[in-house]
Amino acid sequence: MPSQNIPFNKPCFEGKELVYIAEAINQGHISGDGMFSRKCSEYLEAILGCKKALLTTSCTHALEMSALLLDLQPGDEVIVPSFTFVSTANAFALHGAKIVFADIRPDTLNMDETQLESLITPRTRAIVPVHYAGVGCEMNTIMEIANRHHIPVIEDNAHGLFARYHNRYLGTLGQMSTLSFHETKNFTCGEGGALLLNEPSYIPRAEIIREKGTNRSQFFRGQVDKYTWRDIGSSYLPSDMLAGFLYAQLEEREHIMEHRSKIWNRYHTGLKEWASQKGVYLPYVSVHCEQSFHMFYMVMHSLHERQAFIEFMKSQGVYCVFHYLPLHLSVMGQKYGAKPGDCPISEDISNRLVRLPFYNKLSKENMDYIIENILLF
Ligand SMILES: *Cc1c(COP(=O)(O)O)cnc(C)c1O
Predict the structure, then answer these.
(1) pLDDT tens per residue across span 246-271
(2) What's the CATH number where 366 sits?
(3) Are residues 77 and 43 in the same domain?
(4) What is the best residue among 9, 87, 185 to mutate for testing ligand 1's pocket, by most ligand atoms within 8 Å of CB?
(5) Which atom of ligand 1 is nearest to the CA of 63?
(6) How far, in whole angstroms, is CA 46 from its chain's centroid?
(7) What is the pTM of this model?
């Protein structure tokens, strides 16, 4: 039996979560858009400077809302990176889009902006960059190409809340963006998300889509005297109890960011020399990016070495994980005509990447133990 048992992720509480949940209950408003939902939205709008922040039940649902806002027609195409979580593609597939897969850059593992233009066709309706590990995609180039073709950009910013690109917050650069507050993300309420709108013309319809296709939001603001069925939509509001939980985390933004940056830097400092000797690739952050410290990954030489590393660390009681199976190789990906070899960097990185334990309350002692053991590998 190893002397330690260090999980990959652990939900961390900042202190006031239960207080705020109790407050939501005492207020007598536990459905969506109560006091805490408003506080979270206002907080995000004030810090980030987006035109509107709408809390949702997940990032997946925020992406689905963005798909509905695009009014996709049969044959319309949406460009997503192959190396991402399923939802980035599935949300658009669900609403009828044909998914077109972009490969990633080998340095940041973000959508390769140099290949983007070659994927655009007259049917392209959206480009969905993912800021992998909370390090910004090359948004100047992506926005320049998108604007030239009049294609909206939806940033999947599940990893990068409060990270910046050329001093601007990720999620405020495209027409829309999405956030995740899933248990595995930097700020959480268990399950949750948000749709951020930077283009005011999307706001009225987004509010209707979020409220089951009704203008209920206008009704509650006293702007209309009854609410009716106006458009298609669904039920995307999280309970105000969850919003209370989330607000307790958002309030601790500086504290959480500082803690996570310490963890990231401790890994980086502790592993730098070993990695350069071994030829293991560590995360790269472009000079014009401030990252969100969402994760610490390493890229090993081969699938075999990556698997051996995960096994070795597990034998020491440390749980490391790998991720994203390239979407263009998946059963669904192949339905869109994608084939092996289409996104070679995604295929290669997917075999070799490993993520180290990373959560707000990961202790110095645990980190020292993890690093000591990595140095033995
Ligand atoms: C976590 C994640 C999602 C989905 O988030 P949910 O809130 O669980 O729906 C989408 N995209 C990326 C890149 C993610 O990491």
Answers:
(1) 999 999 999 999 999 999 999 999 99
(2) 3.90.1150.10
(3) yes
(4) 87
(5) 10
(6) 20
(7) 0.97
